[in-house]
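EI: anyone free to look at a 518-residue chain?
SC: sure, send it
EI:
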Amino acid sequence: MIYLDNAATGGRKPDCVQRAVRACVEGVCANPGRGGHAAALAQAENVLRARGLLSRFFGGAGAERVVFTKNCTEALNMVLFGAVRAYAHLYTRARPHIVTTAMEHNSVLRPLFALQRAGEISLTVVPLTEGTVRPEAIAAAVNGQTLLAVHTLASNVTGAAVDPAAVRALLPERVLLVCDGAQACGHVPVDMRKAGIDALCVAGHKGMQGIQGAGALLLSARFAPAPFAYGGTGSVSFDENMPAFFPDRLEAGTLSCPAVASLAEGALYLLPRMERIAAHLTRGTAYLAEALRGIDGVRVYGGANPYGILSFASANMQSELFAQALSDEYGIAVRGGLHCAPRMHAALGTAEEGLVRVSLAENNTRAEADTLLAAVRALAARKGCPRSPSEKIRGIPFPRADGAKRPLGQPRPGKQKQSKNAAGDPAAPALHRFEFFDDLFQLFALGGVEHGRERRGKTVEVLVGQRARLAAAFRLLVDGAEDIRLALARQRGRELFCKAVALRRALLRTLLLLLLLF
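SC: here you go
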């Protein structure tokens, strides 16, 4: 497989990182800070060294201001909820105000929207200008109640970057600057002191070369968010509150020592190599962007950047189907869809179709890029491609209980009467997608049954529907949900809409059961 999905998670970990992880699990897995014996003290010393290393790597405020998390999302939630809890009392006349941008990942947007819905904050989302966010626009959104300015260092969709130092220079001193470093950390140098960053949220499993489950939150000396989780810390156990000192204040429960070791070892690996890796990724994205722009029917989003991120859209195929075809037919791993950045896609005009994202790492070669380009040319030139998952599933025949066959997506017998919209005009054919509920039931029930398998002394029927049909049904269920809801709301009114939502939940439970049976 050619792995080009490194923005989701790094596909190839350095040998030194693998060795560090193995050393943690092959020896004694002691709990740091939870005992006075030699093994626990040695593990605690390893964790402390990792804190100091990361603080130096990112220009932080010291080892005690490095909090280990399981991912960047957890770090962002710690900061956003913790800041509001810690500083809301300072805003007596109105709620605290937070400024963020349309470039953000849902790891930023969803916590902020939750706080907004709860009435705990007011929120401003700064729009894009020519595919990025200008520091001046962030500063212009600040008012007298602003507590935080939150922005990503690099977009996970296009690789567009925002300079935190330029943002800090325009912000009032009292406003805290929070940066999502998921796509930037490990790719370019980030110095918190020089840039004026108050909270840096790090994903260890991407550019930092660590394993999944590795993340970190680095805080400036002036930022003290309230605890996000409560529990054991191995310190001041008689205190009913979380400790007042860091990092214990934010680290409840046992750390993942293998993840911490991988993050520290990844930083050591990057120190002499980061500049060379950034140059390699910049050349790779520049080469791909230029070549993709020369392919008919392909539109490119992004350009040369040190984060290795580039996205494109095909005129004849929806992004997730394009990504699936690259995987199934060519063995190339990319990602299609919305990439958990809905406002970014809305601004780019790609919210309906999504984008195919290619994300490079240092081990990706020019030959792999050429293989990708050849595959994109072939798929982009293919005629009669489905435009969406729902169209892909339509037209595939499968058996009925009576032995007859009906293509997926076609109306059932007795359901062929054409509906009309509010204006009395015939509804568009696409609105017949409500048939997908019946289609999915048939896929689950009649996709193939294997008898005679024994489990716990009882003979059970194990559903073994064809993988392609099940995958197509799942994509339709998840990614076509909005279209289905709108179609049902227009055709059958609120009552049927509610039934459809309940049925969709039941189908999701059925799918989970199927996966467990396999």
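EI: The longest strand covers residues 146-152.
SC: 👍
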